[in-house]
Amino acid sequence: MLLRTLISDLDKITTSGNQDVEISALTADSRAVTEGMLFAAIRGTSLDGHRFIDEVISKGATAILAEIGPPTDLPDTVAWLHVPDSRSAIAKIAAAFYEEPAGNLKLAGVTGTNGKTTIAFLIHHIMQTEWHRAGLLSTVLVDDGEERSPAKHTTPGSIELHKILATFRDNACRGGVMEVSSHGIDQKRVHSVAFDAAIFTNLTQDHLDYHVTIERYMAAKASWFHDLAANKQGKKPTAVINTDDARGNDLAKSLDGKMPVIRYGFNVNCDFRAGNFQQKRDGMSFELSARGKTFLVRSPLIGRFNAYNLLAAIAGAAACGIKPRQSIAALADSPQVPGRMQNVGNAGGATVFVDYAHTPDALENACRTLRELDPRRLITVFGCGGDRDKAKRPLMAAAAAQNSDALILTSDNPRSEDPNAIIADMVKGLPPRCNYLTIPDRAEAIDAAMANSRSGDIVLIAGKGHETYQEFSDHTIDFDDRKKADLALRKRALEIAEMRSNPENRF
Ligand SMILES: CC(=O)N[C@H]1[C@@H](OP(=O)(O)OP(=O)(O)OC[C@H]2O[C@@H](n3ccc(=O)[nH]c3=O)[C@H](O)[C@@H]2O)O[C@H](CO)[C@@H](O)[C@@H]1O[C@H](C)C(=O)N[C@@H](C)C(=O)N[C@H](CCC(=O)O)C(=O)O
Ligand SMILES: Nc1ncnc2c1ncn2[C@@H]1O[C@H](COP(=O)(O)OP(=O)(O)OP(=O)(O)O)[C@@H](O)[C@H]1O
Ligand SMILES: N[C@H](CCC[C@H](N)C(=O)O)C(=O)O
Ligand SMILES: [Mg+2]
Prior knowledge:
The chain is α/β, with parallel strands linked by helices. The protein has 16 helices and 24 strands. The strands form four sheets. The protein has an eleven-stranded mixed beta sheet, sandwiched between helices. It has a six-stranded mixed beta sheet with strand order 17-18-22-19-20-21, with helices on both faces. Strand 12 (238-242), helix 9 and strand 13 (261-265) form a beta-alpha-beta unit. It starts with a helix and ends in a 6-residue tail after the last helix. The protein binds ligand UAG, adenosine-5'-triphosphate, 2,6-diaminopimelic acid (API) and magnesium ion (MG). 2,6-diaminopimelic acid is lined by residues 154, 358, 385, 388, 412-413, 463-464, 467. Its cofactor is Mg(2+). Belongs to the MurCDEF family. MurE subfamily. Residues 339-465 form the Mur ligase C-terminal domain. InterPro entries: Mur-like_cat_sf (IPR036565), Mur_ligase_C (IPR004101), Mur_ligase_C_dom_sf (IPR036615), Mur_ligase_cen (IPR013221), Mur_ligase_N (IPR000713), MurE/MurF_N (IPR035911), UDP-N-AcMur-Glu-dNH2Pim_ligase (IPR005761).
């Protein structure tokens, strides 16, 4: 596409060099530059992309987007685009390069500390049921309407993101759904994406390593809604907000009169309001009051928090034009979200669940939900990620201790940190007389939980959910909690069978 066309929507830009050149591709990574590309120099969290400009010019870049003016010795073959903010400029250019793909899709975005992936899967399921083809961009995987591939990020960078949205469109998806992380908002990865529905789930502690304070974390989330309310993308998006969450309620108030808002939750002021929640081991039901009607919602999911996720999915789909009745019919057999409250089996009476809870709130919810199933004991195995919010470690330990009978503290992804030091941070949050073991090796920790389990117990393995790896400072290993749990269950079943077949054990 011609450079001139790509930048035609950018205000606040100073250009030099020939703009009537074809741009073959866009990148913000010098390592990916080949001839004919536009390179965006971004001041990142650890490096400054401007330092790679000489390198990309020598590799044949045709245009440079930067927050500084051009050097005096700039070759005539290179165009220079001087902008105040490279991240938002490259997002706009990416939207233009891929011909505004979101404009051709009914698109829902989901933000909030917990529930994004679950809601994205639920909405994707509704959209697929209704429209046959729909796209999904999530922490777990990307489904472009034809193929599924593993995801690298919850919310990809703006260039990658528009490329994927273009694939949704080109594969004839009528719509799609994506997760919008706070990093994604802060780094303007979703700037210039036209949404029809913007969903807010909740805000609890996480990511303070990045946002520093909870207020700034919330401000990042809120800025996405206020940008959409300013309606620069040519759609009229609807905000879908959980107003049982205090910060969600404030956000909804701040948006009133600026954009349509659907409030959801259990409180009386909700537009999509749940009541009469009931739960069994094999699923839940609740009544939904919406648009003057009452519906019965049934789902194989468990946990009151999942009632919120179902409400968000129904309301989000409604904002994309799908009637609640149709969504509810689709959700009656919604698929298992990988690694979210996944029941991986039962041996000798102990049932094992794998869940992705990696925040204090999520861990509390996961443990409480399993407690409500009335196990003999709840044994929780979990760790905390290295190079991530350290302040959440003791809080996660406290939340798990309060809602479990026994804990096994282990490693999550230690990344560059010492696993024992992470566990020591967790131990600081435990109450006196807590029943716990520390076993840094996650495989051994899972085995120990199984070995200590008895008939009627529930073992919760939390924190890594769908992940298929474990990251250490100098290496990454294959590791899947579900596979490991399955092996441990089989081993335990054999041990129990052997014990029972031994005549000395019969009495
Ligand atoms: C802290 C953080 O979010 N970093 C992300 C960010 O990097 P950055 O912009 O800070 O980049 P940087 O490394 O400082 O480099 C600056 C610029 O120089 C460029 N560069 C760098 C090296 C080089 O040789 N040449 C070169 O051109 C880089 O491409 C970049 O454009 O932008 C990059 C491109 O989009 C991301 O890959 C990178 O994610 C890192 C790997 C990461 O771990 N991010 C996590 C924390 C994250 O984003 N998580 C959220 C979800 C959290 C949740 O689900 O709760 C997510 O959305 O996935
Ligand atoms: N609505 C909710 N409220 C609170 N906790 C939830 C909610 N939904 C899910 N959880 C808990 O949080 C965990 C993560 O859920 P999910 O993957 O859907 O969230 P996410 O927002 O996508 O997380 P991430 O930001 O890490 O990708 C679940 O495994 C569950 O324990
Ligand atoms: N998207 C989250 C996932 C955390 C998952 C947990 N297993 C960990 O590694 O801390 C993050 O990057 O903070
Ligand atoms: Mg997610």
